TrEMBL record:
The lineage of its organism: Archaea, Methanobacteriati, Methanobacteriota, Stenosarchaea group, Halobacteria. Its main location: membrane. The keyword Cell membrane applies. The chain crosses the membrane at residues 12-37, 49-72, 84-107, 127-146, 158-176, 188-210, 222-245, 265-286, 326-342, 385-407, 413-432. It comes from Haloarcula rubra. It holds the Pfam family Usp. GO terms for molecular function: transmembrane transporter activity. Keywords: Cell membrane, Membrane, Transmembrane, Transmembrane helix. This is Amino acid permease. Residues 456-590, 609-725 form the UspA domain. It is found in: Cell membrane. Gene3D superfamilies: Amino acid/polyamine transporter I, HUPs.
Length: 730
């Protein structure tokens, strides 16, 4: 993420979500596509719209669950990327971005067309394209300035055009000539299904709600309600519009018109009706294009956030909290698409179908992603809206089948264009994205089914110089505890934000170094043959954020880096580390890595509840370099002979090893008898590469006791230092 900031503000309520979703669907598609649809399917084009609405409703249901589980910018792209991994994420991301830009260009060409056709002295492609570009520039400015301003603009335009369309339908039903509806399906079932692919672009509005989920207030309620309601209402409206349009004038005449709804309105509403329809078509084109630009910019923004494209796109304006770079790039490509419109009729149909193809492919993968999330059941997926049985798994299965059936009936040229975009996504992943993305997806976990009870080690990472060593220790711990559960390593990096606003979508914020750390963690985990998940967190307090992750993950163990400093600025180990040591409900190892390798560890064993944990941890850490640890006890001779002191020391070690479940072959024993225990500990442990020392399980009076011996080890021993606190209180 750019240093300029990567936060989007949550400002959209139910009305704004409905106008973005429903308003986009009650847009240019209702004014331009009826002619093309009638030409392809006749009066049965109303059935095409009904089928398209049904396919869209299936996708909206799956998206509603996914969006409430992960209300973050990116929509279908983000869910597919998270579920199926970077390859499918790249395919869907590029498909959605190009599809939304195709849609936006289609809308703006329609905008120019409705302005030019009724005015006698305006004619030709230059006027249509020029007006489209002017409208596009206006919309880019609105989107750049702010999402809330963009939505307010939507509210006004959608309300006006909706009233006009309702009047068009309510009056038009009385002028339907039944003879015009015969034959109802002149091109048969194939024509109906093929037309479904053309008109599917009319139902992209609900996707826009998911795409801007990171900017919606109360997403758990508003997202599913606005998605499902907008699809149902708009589908009914489209069916009525097509029945009126093909019932008032013959479908052959309707198919020849570049402004079909206007030609229908003139029959029973006269010139005043035509003016109203033209006005509605113009504002519909603008509002639909506005929504498409809004959504497209969020897709490329999210792709930058996830490393699919350069993170140059993953920047929000420091004042307006809008993805200004993503908006500029989206506008530039859309302008080029508008300029391509040499033959307006051809380019309109082609842009519409190409956009439909991209989204039908995306939605088929969205349905698969829902199944993957359900089966993998990741800890961070907790949707407030979940499909109940029998809707699950019927909805995703039927959604995949219906989407692919519609795609299979599209024109060959559209399939070629759509397949080329898919191929580009695959090549882009292979050439650029692979190795850069952090997420590997959940597909493998979904195939394996519900995971077994894990043994989970959490590793906060912040320093590239020490992360390899910390991850090696954590990997050794996970492998050593395979008998206690499926080994799982969770690497977490926390980016501190001093004053996060509750309205900001801070989930999306990633720092550049954060991405590098987590990418490196995946590389290291692959080398060590350990299952790794990564978490990127933004919070005002790093220590509290780590504690939250430990609790959410139900961690069994934490490996935490530490700089080796004691008693500084009122903290024992530091402002971040102290609360974790004091309050984490699992075993904790504080590691000060001073050398390049773990080498041969020594565990300082003293009577107490931490002794077994220290002994076991030393054995785990020794596995990193294939060595055998030494369990060390230092005794003061007191008034008894040295042999008695040595026997006492061996007994302490044996008890600790037995409590830790260790076999004698897993460790060596060393007992040192000396009057100066502190000096003897330092002398003995200095011969080893890594020293493991126990801490008390509880703090005393708000302090973490570590003892003079521990302090001398930390200050005087040159090797790596590991301070260990078991989960059981002292």
């Amino acid at each position: 993420m750019s240093g300029e900031g990567g936060e989007l503000e949550r400002t959209l309520g139910f009305v704004e979500a409905m106008t973005l979703g429903g308003g986009t669907m009650i847009g240019a598609g209702i004014f331009i596509l009826p002619g093309i649809a009638a030409e392809s399917a006749g009066p049965a084009s109303s059935i095409s719209y009904a089928i398209a609405g049904f396919v869209a409703l299936l996708a909206a249901l799956s998206l509603s669950e996914l969006a409430t589980g992960m209300p973050i910018a990116g929509g279908s792209y983000h869910y597919v990327n998270r579920a199926l991994g970077g390859l499918f994420g790249a395919v869907v991301g590029w498909g959605m971005w190009t599809g939304l830009m195709f849609a936006s260009a289609f809308y703006m060409i329609g905008f120019g067309q409705y302005l030019v056709e009724p005015i006698p002295f305006l004619d030709g492609r230059a006027f249509i394209v020029g007006l489209g570009l002017v409208g596009l520039i206006l919309l880019l400015g609105v989107n750049y300035y702010g999402t809330e301003e963009s939505s307010a603009f939507q509210n006004v335009t959608i309300g006006t055009e909706t009233v006009i369309i309702l009047v068009f339908v309510a009056v038009g039903v009385f002028f339907i000539d039944a003879g015009n509806l015969e034959p109802f399906a002149p091109f048969g079932t194939r024509g109906i299904v093929a037309t479904t692919g053309i008109v599917f672009i009319s139902f992209l509005g609900f996707e826009i709600i998911a795409t801007v989920a990171g900017e919606i207030k109360n997403p758990s309620r508003i997202i599913p309600l606005s998605m499902i309601l907008s699809v149902v209402l708009v589908t009914i409206l489209y069916v009525l519009v097509m029945l009126v349009s093909t019932g008032v004038i013959p479908f052959e005449s309707l198919g020849e018109s570049p402004i079909p709804v206007s030609d229908v309105a003139v029959v029973y509403l006269g010139s005043a009706g035509v003016v109203a329809i033209v006005f509605a078509a113009i504002i519909a084109a603008i509002s639909s294009s506005n929504s498409s630009i809004l959504a497209a910019s969020r897709v490329i923004y999210a792709m930058g956030r996830d490393g699919v494209v350069t993170d140059w796109f993953n920047a929000s304006h420091p004042r307006f909290y809008t993805p200004h770079r993503a908006i500029a790039a989206t506008g530039g490509v859309t302008a080029l698409l508008i300029l391509v419109g040499l033959e307006v009729e051809t380019i309109i149909a082609l842009l519409a179908e190409a956009a439909s193809f991209s989204f039908l492919v995306a939605y088929s993968l969205v349905h698969v992603s829902l199944v993957v999330f359900r089966r993998a059941d990741p800890d961070d997926y907790d949707p407030s809206f979940a499909l109940p049985r029998p809707l699950y798994p019927v909805v995703p299965v039927l959604g995949v089948v219906s989407s692919l059936v519609v795609v299979s009936q599209m024109a060959n040229v559209v399939v070629v264009i759509g397949s080329a975009i898919v191929g580009f996504g695959v090549l882009w992943y292979a050439a650029y994205t692979r190795g850069r993305v952090v997420s590997e997806g959940l597909l493998r976990e979904a195939i394996r089914g519900p995971p077994a009870q894990p043994f989970r080690v959490v590793v906060p990472i912040a320093n590239p110089a020490t992360q390899r060593g910390l991850l090696r220790l954590a990997a050794a711990s996970t492998h050593a505890n395979e008998d206690r559960g499926t080994p799982e390593l969770v690497a977490v990096n926390v980016t501190a934000v001093d004053h996060p606003s509750p309205l900001q979508n801070v989930e999306a914020e990633r720092a550049d170094h954060q991405r590098d750390l987590l990418e490196n963690a995946h590389d290291i985990a692959t080398q060590m043959d350990v299952t790794l998940r990564t978490k990127a967190v933004v919070a005002p307090d790093v220590g509290e954020a780590i504690l939250d992750v430990i609790e959410e993950e139900a961690a069994d163990e934490v490996i935490l880096g530490w700089d080796g400093t004691l008693d500084r600025d009122g903290y024992v180990f530091g402002e971040t580390v102290d609360p974790v040591v004091q309050r984490a409900g699992c075993d904790i190892s504080l590691v000060d890595l001073r050398g390049e390798s773990i080498g041969e560890p020594v565990a300082l064993i003293a009577p107490g509840p931490n002794a077994p944990v220290v002994a076991h941890q030393a054995v785990e850490f020794a596995a990193v370099d294939g060595t055998v640890p030494t369990l060390l006890n230092v005794q003061s001779p007191g008034s008894k002979p040295d042999s008695d002191a040595e026997e006492r020391g061996r007994a302490v070690i044996a008890d600790a090893a037995a409590a830790a479940g260790l076999e004698p072959v897993e460790y060596d024993v060393e007992v040192v008898v000396d009057d100066d225990v502190g000096r003897a500990v330092v002398d003995a442990t200095s011969r080893y590469d890594t020293v493991c020392v126990g801490l008390s399980g509880r703090s005393e009076g708000g302090r973490i006791p570590f003892g003079t011996v521990t302090e001398r080890v930390v200050n005087d021993v040159p090797g790596n230092i590991v301070l260990i606190r078991g989960s059981e209180p002292a």
